[in-house]
Design goal:
It contains five helices and no strands. It is mainly α. The chain has a domain of 56 residues.
Length: 140
């Protein structure tokens, strides 16, 4: 292996200067972004304690049930959508709309929707469409 030629001092000096300038620019950018992120972050809100006679939402596989949060801009309560409420919202729609959305649902959502239909509205067209969609997924 041949020895490397020495780097000329002017090139070394220019490279060091460029790297130093880049480091200062990155440091300044980091400080600016940190300051901006502090302005964009919603203020810490104190959670209101749950009254003794009030229970939190039902627990799900993902964790505790839905909790209403406050929009930091307008103070408007948001609806926390869960797996169960998604299926129940869909089940409340007209049969034609439910059937049109069946292919977009996961197997778990289809099974939940099927149970909901069997126990509530009992719409034969919806139940049949769910069964037809589930059949290929279950290998029957």
């Amino acid at each position: 292996m041949a020895p490397m030629a020495p780097i000329p001092s002017k090139l070394r000096s220019a490279t060091a200067s460029a790297l130093s300038t880049s480091a200062r620019a990155l440091s300044l950018s980091s400080h600016l972004l940190e300051g901006l992120s502090g302005l964009l972050r919603p203020a810490e809100r104190e959670q209101e304690p749950v009254a003794a006679d009030q229970e939190p939402g039902p627990a799900t596989a993902e964790g505790p049930g839905p909790v209403a949060t406050t929009d930091p801009v307008g103070g408007v309560a948001e609806h926390a959508r869960t797996f169960e409420t998604h299926v129940e919202e869909l089940a409340a729609k007209p049969a034609a709309e439910v059937i049109s959305r069946i292919e977009q649902l996961s197997t778990d959502e289809l099974e939940r929707l099927y149970s909901h239909e069997q126990g509530n509205k009992k719409r034969k067209t919806v139940i049949t469409a769910i069964e037809q969609s589930l059949a290929p997924r279950q290998g029957t």
